[in-house]
Amino acid sequence: MSGRAQPPSERGDRHLRHDIRDAWVVVRTELRARVRQTLETPRQLISVAMLLLLAGILLPLLCSDVALSYGASLTSGSPPVGRTGLLVTAAMGAGLYLGFSTATQQLQLGTLSPLVRTAVPPRAVVFGRLTSELTQAIVFVILPVVLLLPAVVIGAWNPIPAVLLILALVPPLLSSAFAGRLLGEGLTFANRWLGVGIWTKGVVLLTTTAAAYLGLQMWLGSVLPDSSMTATEAGLQTIVPGAPLQAYASVVLEPFGAQARPLGLVVGAVLVAAVPLSLAATVRFESWLLQREPEADRDETAHADESRPVAAPFRATTSARVAWRYLLRTRRDPAMLAHLFPVFVGSLGILSTAVTDPDTVLWLAPGTAVIVGAALAGGAYCLNPLGDDRDQLPLVLTSTGSTTMLLRGRALAGLTLGMLFAWGLAVPLELADGSGTHTVALALFAPVLLLAGAGTALGMGALSPKFKRNEYLNVERAHPSLIVSIGYMFGAIPVGITGLVLFPAAVGDPSAVNLTAVSIYILVIGAISWGGYAAAVRRLDRLTLDDI
C-alpha cells in the first residue's frame, strides 16, 4: 500500500467488513454447535420437535380458517384495519419477548469471555451473538407465519396483500426485538452489579408482576364495552383503540381501500427509524458490557448463618434432616425456586378475582390454594432430582448405596412448602366460609393430593434429569426440564379439580357410590405416585459419574 493516510470513511468501511466477517464466524459456529448439541441430546431433540410441532402444525391448523377469512377481507373493499392493527401489536409483543428472553436466558453455547475479548473485536462479538440468538428464537415465530401466508393468499386470491403485510410487520418486530434485548441486558446488568439482596429482588419482582397484572385487568375492565360483542371485536377495541397502531395499519391497507391517516405515516416512519436506532443502542451497550473488566460476583449469601441446628419436627429421620437442609438452603438462596415463577403467574387469576369480584374469593381461593400446594410439593425440589446437587454427586454416588434418602428428603421439603398453602391457607379460608363439611373434606384431600404430586414429580423428573447449568430469569443453575415442568403443572390442575369434586361429595354424603369413587381416585393417583417414586429410585441409583 502507498504511504498516504487512508481517509476515515475508508478505514471505517474496512473495519466494518472485518467485523462482519468475524461476526459471521461467531454466528456460524454458534448455530452449528446448537444443531449438533440438539441432535446428540435426545431430550433436547424431543423438546425442539414438540415446539416445531406446535408452531409448525397445530397452530397453523387452528388458525387456518381465521387466515382465510382475513385474506378475503383484505380484498373485500373494506379492509380490516382493526385486525391488522392487532397483528402489528402482536408482532411488537413477540419481538419484545424474544429480545428480552435471549438477553436473560443466555442461548449462546460458547463462553465468549475472556478469550473473545482478545481474539475478536467487541462489535463483531455482539453482532454475532445477537444474530445467533435471535435466529434461534425467531424461527418459532417465522415458521407459523410462513405456513399461514398461503391461507391469506388463497383467501385474498392475490399475493400482494400478504407481501405488504409481511413488509409492514418487519419494522415493529425488529425494533421491539432490539428494544427488548436492550431492556433485558440492562436489567441483567442491574441485577448482577447492584448490591441488593436476593430476597429484596424476589419481592420486587413478584410485587411488580402482580401489580402489572392487576393494572392490566383493571384497565381491560374499564375499557371493555358492556354491550354484547364477540371476543374478537372486544379485544380489537381494547388492544388497538384507534391510535397509533391502527393508524399505521390504515396506511398499510391504503392500496386496498382503507382511508390512510396522517398519524399512520408518522408511526410508520418512527417504526422504520427505530430499527437502526435500537440496534445501534443495543450493540453499543453490549459492547460496553463486553469490555468491562470482570469483577467477582457479590456473594449474596455471604452473610447467611453458617450453621443452624435442625428444627425439632425434622429430627425424626435422616430423610427429614435432609429436607430441613433443603429448606435452609432455600431460605438462604430463594433463587432455587426460580423455575416456579410460572406457578406464581398462573395463580394471579385468583388475585385479580379478589379485586374485581371479592365475593367469589372464599369460593375459589381454598381449592386454588390446595392445587398450588400440590404444585409446590412436587415442583419445588422433585422435578429435577439431584440435578442441582451436581457438585455433591460424586461424593453421593460413591459413598451411598441408594439415593432413596435424598429423594425422600426432597419430597418432604416440598411437602412442607405445599402444606403451608394446603392446610395453612386453604383450610382457614374454607372454615371462614362457614362450611364445616367442605373444611373436613379439604383437610383430608390436601395430603392425598400433595403426596401424589411429590411422587409423580420425582418420576417425571427422573425421566430427564438435567445437570448442566443454564440461566433462566437471571438465575444460573440446573433448572428442571421445561417439558417436564409444564406437563406436571398442567397435569396437577385436572387431577386437583377432580379431587375437589369427589372428596366433598363423599364427606357430605358417604354413600357407596361416592366412597367407591373416592377410593378409586386415591388408588389411581397413589399408584401413579408410588410408580413415579420407584422409577426415580431405579433410574437415579443407576447413575454413574460419566452420566453427570
TrEMBL record:
<keyword id="KW-0472">Membrane</keyword>
<keyword id="KW-0812">Transmembrane</keyword>
<feature type="transmembrane region" description="Helical">
    <location>
        <begin position="512"/>
        <end position="533"/>
    </location>
</feature>
<keyword id="KW-1133">Transmembrane helix</keyword>
<feature type="transmembrane region" description="Helical">
    <location>
        <begin position="196"/>
        <end position="220"/>
    </location>
</feature>
<feature type="transmembrane region" description="Helical">
    <location>
        <begin position="482"/>
        <end position="506"/>
    </location>
</feature>
<feature type="transmembrane region" description="Helical">
    <location>
        <begin position="361"/>
        <end position="383"/>
    </location>
</feature>
<feature type="transmembrane region" description="Helical">
    <location>
        <begin position="441"/>
        <end position="461"/>
    </location>
</feature>
<feature type="transmembrane region" description="Helical">
    <location>
        <begin position="263"/>
        <end position="283"/>
    </location>
</feature>
<feature type="transmembrane region" description="Helical">
    <location>
        <begin position="137"/>
        <end position="157"/>
    </location>
</feature>
<feature type="transmembrane region" description="Helical">
    <location>
        <begin position="411"/>
        <end position="429"/>
    </location>
</feature>
<feature type="transmembrane region" description="Helical">
    <location>
        <begin position="163"/>
        <end position="184"/>
    </location>
</feature>
<feature type="transmembrane region" description="Helical">
    <location>
        <begin position="335"/>
        <end position="355"/>
    </location>
</feature>
<protein>
    <recommendedName>
        <fullName>ABC-2 type transport system permease protein</fullName>
    </recommendedName>
</protein>
<feature type="transmembrane region" description="Helical">
    <location>
        <begin position="45"/>
        <end position="68"/>
    </location>
</feature>
<feature type="transmembrane region" description="Helical">
    <location>
        <begin position="80"/>
        <end position="100"/>
    </location>
</feature>
